[in-house]
Design a protein that fits this description.
The structure is a homodimer.
Chain A (H helix, E strand, L loop, with lengths): L5 E4 L4 H12 L4 E5 L2 H11 L5 E5 H7 L2 E4 L6 H8 L8 E4 L4 E4 L2 E4 L7 H6 L7 E4 L6 H5 L7 E7 L2 H13 L3 E7 L4 H18 L5 E5 L2
Parallel strand pairs in A: 1-2, 1-4, 2-3, 4-5, 5-8, 9-10
Antiparallel strand pairs in A: 6-7, 8-9
Chain lengths: ~220, ~220
């Protein structure tokens, strides 16, 4: 069965690039959507990936995709979704990887989000026919980006339907070294975003770079 | 150096019993404080622990202790702290292990706590000279209670001072199979409590009993 086309929005950042490259290597047709398509062409050319990665404007990327990965900063979610909302394919899957991290006086925290989590914030801003899953929030962007580094950890996924969780889990499992751990409804995204905060806190406090999670007993 | 005396409040529950037994085996002088000291004597006798574990009323247990482990249900925190507040030794360490779990329609969640977390709720209810650390929130109570089971996981600790975190970390490290991971100030307790929620969700969804966490890359 052909793998569904994936659009990575924010694909020129570390997190988005890592996901774009790793999913392309796994055989997914990947298009990087950017506000500045010419810059995206230059950036993607520099990666010298063995697999083809297309580039497009954000609108075109979303129109072509069955899966849309939101790898943009949390602050960019609202304007981005406002502009692309009419373009989603029917039953498209939005994979939200954003985390509303804040650094106040050098101390990492999570911004309060009225909906409870970044993922529920996204859910409230896409059409009802679009499915939403939250994942790729805890695997370190730096490791994803260093495409030959072993990941060797678990990645948590939650979503508003079992099909959203299943399709997002397939993306996780396609990335070598990741195990998908389904934790249930989208309301669990807040807990996943707290894991990211803990990983950031552990990195800073213990002078490491790639703290990540493995579930024991599963 | 002699290990500090530890009072476990709620020591007749699964979580409290596991902690009392494992800390006694590690050489800590342990007293189980109970609202019903006669029942506590009967319960502790049944454990047939190789190490002595004393019993006392909650007030006596707190008066004697340098470390007070709150292994009571979250709902019991307010009345318990109201009654014992005047009895804490100077610079006593309160180790909060409570998690405000809720089950609404069979779905696990966390109760909203005005202070942000159970641990900060505790902090707001003890005298200023008492130190507070949050830990032992994610190691499964069932495994702690099965005293010969290997734990083989990380336990997260946060606290309001470096001495609180250090002293709480010593308790963690004394328990065979646990590694202490210091995640910083007490405000991180909310993230730790979300980890507990995720572990509960993983247990239910994947039909396992003892999901727990290990940090990779540390």
């Amino acid at each position: 069965m052909a793998l569904p086309p994936v659009a990575v929005l924010g694909g020129t950042g570390q997190h988005g690039r890592g996901l774009a490259c790793r999913l392309a290597r796994a055989g997914y047709p990947v298009v990087v959507g950017s506000r500045d398509p010419l810059r995206a062409v230059r950036v993607v050319d520099e990666w010298r990936e063995p697999c083809p990665i297309a580039t497009a404007s954000i609108l075109e990327a979303v129109q072509r995709a069955a899966v849309v990965v939101l790898a943009i900063p949390f602050d960019a979610v609202d304007p981005t979704l406002r502009s692309v909302s009419p373009c989603f394919a029917h039953e498209a899957l939005v994979v939200d990887v954003t985390v509303p991290l804040t650094f106040v006086g050098g101390v990492a925290g999570l911004a309060r989000v009225a909906e409870g989590s970044a993922a529920e914030h996204v859910k409230a801003r896409v059409p009802a026919h679009v499915r939403v899953a939250a994942t790729f929030k805890t695997v370190p962007a730096r490791l994803l980006h260093a495409a030959d580094s072993p990941l060797d950890c678990d990645e948590f996924v939650c979503g508003d339907s079992s099909s959203a969780r299943t399709d997002a889990s397939a993306l996780i499992t396609a990335v070598s070294g990741l195990r998908a751990v389904d934790v249930g409804p989208l309301s669990r995204a807040q807990a996943i975003e707290h894991l990211t905060l803990l990983a950031v806190a552990i990195n800073r406090r213990h002078h490491v770079h790639d703290a990540r999670f493995r579930i024991v007993g599963l």
